[in-house]
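Running this now, will post back.
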Amino acid sequence: MPTTVDDVLEHGGEFHFFQKQMFFLLALLSATFAPIYVGIVFLGFTPDHRCRSPGVAELSLRCGWSPAEELNYTVPGPGPAGEASPRQCRRYEVDWNQSTFDCVDPLASLDTNRSRLPQGPCRDGWVYETPGSSIVTEFNLVCANSWMLDLFQSSVNVGFFIGSMSIGYIADRFGRKLCLLTTVLINAAAGVLMAISPTYTWMLIFRLIQGLVSKAGWLIGYILITEFVGRRYRRTVGIFYQVAYTVGLLVLAGVAYALPHWRWLQFTVALPNFFFLLYYWCIPESPRWLISQNKNAEAMRIIKHIAKKNGKSLPASLQRLRLEEETGKKLNPSFLDLVRTPQIRKHTMILMYNWFTSSVLYQGLIMHMGLAGDNIYLDFFYSALVEFPAAFMIILTIDRIGRRYPWAASNMVAGAACLASVSIPGDLQWLKIIISCLGRMGITMAYEIVCLVNAELYPTFIRNLGIHICSSMCDIGGIITPFLVYRLTNIWLELPLMVFGVLGLVAGGLVLLLPETKGKALPETIEEAENMQRPRKNKEKMIYLQVQKLDIPLN
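Update: finished.
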């Protein structure tokens, strides 16, 4: 009788030495994705800056001014609290090389009221108050050019969008292992080339290329590890694969602190990707994919290797393998199937909005922290730490309480934390950090739960399509987020948090309109998906999430 891979793994080991070894290797891959996803916080750090005015340095040296006195005498005053400062992008139209200037309030000889003095743009560059460097300081991505920093981060999300939409087909067509090694090579090369880019344009091109392959590689790693383990361990392994990404965040904070110059930082986080090319000799092809390609003999050879590594033996009866998918009439899904019927249409709209919101809040909170935090390295480290309890809370709650209430609560906590942070005065920085960490934990939980629930709300024949379409909204959100954060902070530093707060609260309310999926079999037909909110008897069979195709996008 034909046997599934899961049947064989029950005898050969579902999560033993081989699977633990594979998890460790692929977890390293997951960790190295962190610098690409949120590395903008350090690579694009914008320090305090002011216009460079020829002659000011010489005058300051002649008069013996302190840095504070130089600022006070020669730079326009700051704007209202919480708003962009004119001194960063404007300068007095004054010839500082004149020898008639007095050392005490030199501009008084021109006009006693400085507001009447002519001002102009920074024609001679900027002075940056930082011991290190970033792409902002090197390419002067401030003032009129500040949109170029937004474009830099949006470009990597454009790459994510294109890469993740195509990776399902590519991995199914050419195999997991070949795709993994190809994306690793391109990602490593593009990362190193970006570190030595001579111009902004070249840096942008290599960043886009990184986006095209890096998320795709992360997803292939997810697919591989979930296909190597037995069905009972898939969800837990998937969550801990994302925890490895969180470890990467912590390491990134330390490396960025040790290397404050962006080129050395980029080179350091890109170089380890070449190490993953050694996986050619360490990681076998997925036996599930081999079976889907009718390469059963090779699949059985790999499964025997897995059993041998695990110290197990396979019964002689387990010799014929088949796919877990049910045979029957093949249906061709289309986008219309996601909006044709009322309940599935509602599920699609809510899921798309939640994917979008999760991405905007997750990336947006990290970017905003880089603009508003006192110590960017410690703030980044503390906020990354809260992703660990978020993962454990998901494991503890989703099979006890359910999906809907923890999901709704995590969105609402994230939204409420954003709004609360706006009203906290600046002298209570410790409280602001606590509230920000709560918001980060909430949106991390929401991001991971939407990955799970997305698969549980669609019937079998449109499940992969539904996941692809809905999850693509997270990349759309990532494209918009840099412009949302950096442009709104020019109006008011806390304005992005107010937008995030509203988005999060609305997302939490919409989640309550979805059916609870805990303890329910995955729907197989449109009719079952339409009736999910009605009481029904559970099927006396186990149905689990397939991972032969790309089905769970990034955290």
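The longest helix spans residues 342-372. More later if anyone needs it.
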